[in-house]
Every structure is written in C-alpha cells, then in structure tokens.
Amino acid sequence: MPPAFTVIGASKKKVIIDTDPGIDDAMAILLAFESPELDIIGITTTFGNVRTQMATYNALHLCDVGGRDDIPVAQGLETSLRGVIKNRIADFVHGNDGLGNTNPAPPKRSAIAQSAPEFLIQKCKELPGEITVVALGPLTNIAKAVEDDPTFTKNVGQIIILGGAFMVNGNVNPAAEANVFGDPEAADIVFTCGADITVIGINITHQVFFTDKEMDEVRDSKGKYASYLYKASRFYFDYHHDFYDIDAIFLHDPTTIVAAIDPSLFTYTSGVVRVQTDGICKGLTVFNTTTKKWAETTAWCNLPPVKVAVTVDAPAVAKILKDRLMGLHHK
C-alpha cells in the first residue's frame, strides 16, 4: 500500500487563490492551508459574496487564523471589468461580514501594494507554466490580467474556475450561476482566452455536501479550524434550509480546491464555452460539445476549448475536506 501522506520533497502545485470570502471560500482556503500538495504563493481578492474590500479583510483574517502571514494578499477590482458596481451582495447567504456574522477579528497586516491583476501577471511571468490560478469568485481580476498582458494566457499554467451551470439551472436565477453572473463579460473573456482551463460548475458542486451531522463531527474533532468553521457555517446551514429545504450545505469552493489537489476525482468533457452577457439569460454558460462544422462563421468558430467537469466522486471529495478539517490527514 502506498503511504497516505505526501512524500517529503515531492513537487507541490503552486497556486494563487482568487477569492471573495464567503463561508465556503473560508472552508476552501483553510482546506488549502491543510493540503501538502499545494504551495500557496498568493491570494487575490474580488467582489461577489462580499465587496472587494471586505473580501481582502476576510482573506487577511483567514491567513491569521491559519498562521500564514507568509502568503501575500493582493486586492482586486472593486467593480466589474467594464466598471459596473455590483448591486447583488450575497449577505443572505454568507452574512453581512461574509463569515456568518461571526465578526472576524481585524487582520494583523494589510494587502500588498500591487493590485490583484498586477500580482497575477508578475507571478506568472516569474514562474511561466508553473502556476495554477484557482478562481473561486467572479473572473474580473483574471480577465483584467488577460487584457493587460498578451502573454498572460501563455504564462499561466492552469486556471481552475468555480463557475457556470452546465445542463442544470443556475443558483442566481434559472439561467445563471453566481460567479459568472457577477461579471459575465469577464467570464466570456476568460473562457475563450486560450489558457489551460478547467471549469467546475454547480452541476458538480451541488453533488458535494456536508450534512449537519457531518459538520457536528467536524466541530467535535481536534481539527485546527473545527470550532471556527462550525460557528461560521451556522448561517450557511440556515440559508440552505430556507432556500433549498435541505439539512446540508453545498461545498462549492472546497470542491474546486480538491480539483487542484486531485483532478482524478472528476471526469471532463472538452468544448467551447461562451457566456450570455445581457438579457433575461445574462450569465448563462453555453457549452458546445459538438464536432459539427458550422455552415457559417459565427461567434462560436475558431475558439479554444476548455475542460468542463461532468462527473465527480462526491463522497471522496467530501471526505478529503472532512478529514483535513478534522486533522485526520498527515502533512
């Protein structure tokens, strides 16, 4: 049997987490801290679950919780790529502070002077082909990096995106998933930019969940973050009970981190993804998996494919999160 831990000296995946914490973002970030497979070289912040300044505050706070003051945090854009201020903040999902109204302690340090797009561009130039960007919020910062640096799509190793709803309804409205809906123009730019892209949509993340009983088990464990996350998750559980009528929470962001840790737990299909940018279907992700040659040249032609996750070993993904939050794995 192979050892159930990472061998010393094994290559770690260098990641930058682009995030809008968010209760499940907090779970994802703390999971990343407990994952020896990952070398977190930075966190960048965006709007979504909270506004960008609050996302930065929460990201810095989570670094304090994890004892990771070595990780630089770069603040991202406060509006959409085209300058639109986001009206919809998900306080009804994550609380006014993004962390379940737990009033997180002020962070001990500030964000770095560089903006998130500048940080993304610089790090990918320094380490071409080596960095995986895990995008847990709207894709504004990444689209800005694509627009500002023509070499970014070649320099970035991989982009793993939490976003879209493929062959299922959205979670903002029947057409749209929240991260794509937050900045559909940015999402369309990123999906078609030609980088190595893997997409984890809510067709996948709605299969991965913790029950209230499982969260109780996390709380009662000796895990480093068990009590902290249990308190933050109460608000999130209430939202799922009220809006979905379930005694469980979906693990959107942690599932996307697991896709960086162990991509073999998913299967994928390749094709072109475009995003509807206005109208009643604003934020809709349309996935072309056909091999048909179209008679006319359209906005679908000559675009690079992305990989979209179509199945997941949901129990295995949830187990990775649960074990690591409970302190049951070996570093």
UniProtKB/TrEMBL annotation:
- Keyword tags: Cytoplasm, Glycosidase, Hydrolase
InterPro entries in UniProt:
Inosine/uridine_hydrolase_dom, IUNH, Ribo_hydro-like
* Locations listed in the record: Cytoplasm
State the Pfam families in the record: IU_nuc_hydro
Give the enzyme's EC designation: 3.2.2.3
What's its top-level EC category?
Answer: hydrolase
Extract the Gene3D superfamilies matched here: Ribonucleoside hydrolase-like
Q: Which residues form the Inosine/uridine-preferring nucleoside hydrolase domain?
A: 15-317
Task: Mention one GO molecular function.
Answer: uridine nucleosidase activity
Predominantly, its location class is cytoplasm
Record keyword NAD present: no
Mention any one GO cellular component term assigned to this protein in its UniProt record. Answer: cytosol
An example GO BP is:
purine nucleoside catabolic process
Reactions catalysed, semicolon-separated, are: uridine + H2O = D-ribose + uracil
Name the CDD domains on file: nuc_hydro_CaPnhB
Family indicated by similarity: Belongs to the IUNH family.
Q: What is the protein name stated in its UniProt record?
A: uridine nucleosidase
Supply the source organism's classification: Eukaryota, Viridiplantae, Streptophyta, Embryophyta, Marchantiophyta
